[in-house]
TrEMBL record:
InterPro entries: RBD_domain_sf (IPR035979)
The name this protein goes by in its record: RRM domain-containing protein
Organism of provenance: Bicosoecida sp. CB-2014
UniProt GO MF annotations: nucleic acid binding
Lineage: Eukaryota, Sar, Stramenopiles, Bigyra, Opalozoa
Keywords from the named record: Membrane, Transmembrane, Transmembrane helix
Amino acid sequence: GVEPAAAAASPSSPSSRGVQRVPTVLLSGLKSGLPMRYLRALLASTVDGVESVVMPRAKGAPLGFAVIYFSSTALAIAGIRALDGRLHAPSGSRLSARWDP
């Protein structure tokens, strides 16, 4: 017979919902070296449902972008709409928001 644990882990089972990927948006066009508190303030005044924000600082990471984790897919979609094409004040550059694959 089928092991119960294996059956529970199958993708079609509703219990696997907890393992859903977090809705993640990639925001680029930020001024490199932008303080994190400025970015948090920008997001707080523009979009809802931001769980956390990461600005990669690793060597080799492209400059001027942030990864935003949203609490739900609907809020992430609204966030992309609100942020994409928005003018970014300090540099005057346009922001680009898209799904992070």
